[in-house]
Structures are given as structure tokens and as C-alpha cells.
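Ticket opened by: R.M.
Priority: normal
Category: complex prediction / small molecule

The reporter submitted a protein together with manganese (II) ion and asked that the result be attached to this ticket for the collaborator who will pick it up next week. Submitted input follows.
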Amino acid sequence: MTDFIFPPAATPSLPIGGEDRAFPVRRVYCVGRNYAAHAVEMGHDPDREAPFFFQKNPNNLAPGADLFPYPPMSEDVHHEIELMVALKSGGRDIPEDRAGECVFGYGVALDMTRRDLQGEMKIAGRPWEIGKAFEESAPCSELVPVSETGWRDNGAIWLDVNGERRQTGDLNQMIWKVPEMIAYLSQYFELSAGDVILTGTPSGVGPVSRGDLMEGGVEGLGQISVRVV
Ligand code: MN
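Result attached by the on-call engineer:
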């Protein structure tokens, strides 16, 4: 066993409904512009283009968090409510018709975004990390196993801020469906048990301020309630 010079960081994990053991997280992939109406609101053509991905750090996930600390170095932090998919297996070049077998379960997450910094990076042609991969940038629910929910390719997804509906959509509006995302990602990366995918956000993204209460969910798969502090 390797002897470390200091104790290694704890393995990030997600709780699982009705299960004492946790889901250990390996990587977090996020897909961009996966709902046509959101692509339009961000100034892009909604025609089906190849999906694109970025990553958050596994320890950016904040399962069960009821507070979201407003991050430093930004004055325009946006909410993005998203279906979260957790994988129990992976591989390379996974065929689309086998991709569903990789799914362990579902949850709901917020892909919190420093939109001002992300915008600067887009203009400069630079990576998005400072806009996306910051501390506690992904408040999320526990996971529900697909063995309990069955396969889900439709269902309402929503986000309210201070009781007012801000984002609304349906999983059936996703341009790239979950099996397609898994198949596509596996052409570029070796997927593995423990990988998590945030599957994109419906339209209605917008800024939050300290004190705001964000409440959202995906029908039958999870809900979150997080206050910005
Ligand atoms: Mn997103």
C-alpha cells in the first residue's frame, strides 16, 4: 500500500436513497447547450450540432447542501438545473444500444456558473474552468437507482427562485439523449463506474443573489432546495 506524505483527500461521493452505502464519484462530465430553447437564449443555433462537454471536479459536487456560498471573483452567478446521471460501468466506444446498461441511477443538480467569467473565456477562446469548476458549484440531490425508477427519457424539470418559476422543461426536450451522450463521450474518454454526467439545462437560466432560495427538481427523480449565502 502506498505511503503518502500527507493524508489523501476523501473520495467524493453521493448518497443513495434507501441505501447505507454511498456512490463514489470518479469524474464529472457536463454537456453544454442540450436543450434547444437554452441554446437560443445563449445566442446559438439550436440545430443539432455535436454535443460538447466540459468537466467539473468531483469535489465540486455538494450533495444535500442547503446553502450555496456565492463564489468570489464574479458578479453574475447563474443557476442551471440539470438531470444528473450516475454510471455503474463504462468502457470505450460503447454502442448507443448498450449505453443504458451503464446507468446506475439519477439525481438532480445545479450547474452553478460564473457567467461573467465564462463569457470572458468564451470570447478569449480559453477554457471554462473558472466559470464552472469552483467550490460547491454543483449542489445536488441524492441518487435514486434506475432499478427503482426505470429508464427515464421524459419528465418535468424545473427551477424556482424565491417561489417564482424560472426554468422549466422536459427531459424529452434534450437534443442529445442520455445513451447518445454516453456513446459519444466513450469515443473520447474511457468511461468508468463512478462517472457522473450533468446533462444540460432547459431555458430560463439567470442570475442569483445572496439570500435567494433556489428550489428545483426532476419529476420523480429528485428535488433540491438551496439558499444562496
Ligand atoms: Mn450546464
